[in-house]
Amino acid sequence: MDAFTGLLDGPRARGAFLLRSIMDPPWSLRIQDQAPLTLVAVVRGEAWVVPDGGEPVLLRPGDVAIVRGPEPYTVADDPATPPQIVIHPGQRCATPQGEDLEQAMDLGVRTWGESPDGSTMMLTGTYQMRGEISQRLLDALPPLLVLAEDAWDCPLVPLLAAEIVKDEPGQEAVLDRLLDLLLIAVLRAWFSLQAAEAPAWYRAHGDPVVGKALRMLLNNPAHPWTVATLAEGVGVSRAALARRFAELVGEPPMAFLTGWRLAMAADLLREGDVTVGAVARQVGYGSSFALSTAFKRVRGISPQEHRVGASAG
């Protein structure tokens, strides 16, 4: 596992909301569903993504946008078109006055809009990520990123467009995996193009020493790592590893490992059927007491308090 794979392991589509929208101008969708991450791909026509606090961005056929929530935004044929439809949490569609539109605009399997022959067709995939590991990925992204069709070579948008309208056994699993592949491909291409803005952990992955050290930590976080054993594994001195790791990742190796272990623990604690002791062993702490001490020191609350808070949320 590399750093990118490890951080992407959280945002996997599991029954993700996926929809094909077909619209004719003038149209404007006000998105306030509070989703942490949304992917929009234009199949035909054009669409403007209008963040509340940023400049409008035009999407053309083949372009893909990733919008980081939960802040609301608008997607429209023109930035000046007033919202006609509001998308609420749970993907409830209504007029600005509150009238339900879900049935009125149903165009068939995972298809919604005004007319099957509308001039604009978009694919929208919404992730409901709530994990700590996923948050590390979200924190690395701008509120809106756009990958233009001519900036990469990827057949996934046409493939997803063809599969989204099928209603066959296992189709949801197929669509989930395609959405995952598209998200990963877009992020990998965008990070590569925006090398100067890529997060430290992504840039460090390409370093022959630090990249290998990161993979060792991510592959086996429960191992009793020290800087010495990690340095031995990558073939450099402790001082050299500690210095280079801190320079590239932004924190010392053991601090990175602690943060990763506690992020994993926080996600595992959301699963109500696992004990704190079992979580502790899985992430590299010898006992529930050791995990609780580290958890409270770093996060200010106990694992049990975190679990109760996660369940309430």
Task: Report a brief summary of the structure.
By secondary structure, the chain is α+β, with helices and mostly antiparallel strands. Helix content is 41%, strand content 19%.
Describe the structure.
- This protein is α+β, with helices and mostly antiparallel strands and 313 residues long.
- The chain has twelve helices and twelve strands.
- It has a six-stranded mixed sheet, with helices on one face. It has a six-stranded mixed sheet with strand order 5-4-7-2-8-9, with no helix packed on it.
- Strand 4 and strand 5 form a beta hairpin.
- Helix 7 packs across helix 8 (238-249) and helix 10 crosses helix 11 (288-299).
- The chain is elongated, with a radius of gyration of 22 Å.
- The mean pLDDT is 87.
Map the helices and strands.
Elements: H1 3-8, E1 17-23, E2 28-31, E3 37-44, E4 47-51, E5 57-59, E6 64-68, E7 73-76, E8 85-88, E9 92-94, E10 111-113, E11 120-127, H2 132-139, E12 144-147, H3 156-163, H4 171-193, H5 200-205, H6 210-219, H7 227-234, H8 238-249, H9 253-268, H10 276-283, H11 288-299, H12 303-312
Parallel strand pairs: 1-10, 2-8
Antiparallel strand pairs: 1-11, 2-7, 3-6, 3-11, 4-5, 4-7, 6-12, 8-9
Helix pairs in contact: 3-4, 6-7, 7-8, 9-10, 10-11
Strand order in the sheet with the most strands? 10-1-11-3-6-12
Number of strands: 12
Shape: elongated
The secondary-structure element order is HEEEEEEEEEEEHEHHHHHHHHHH
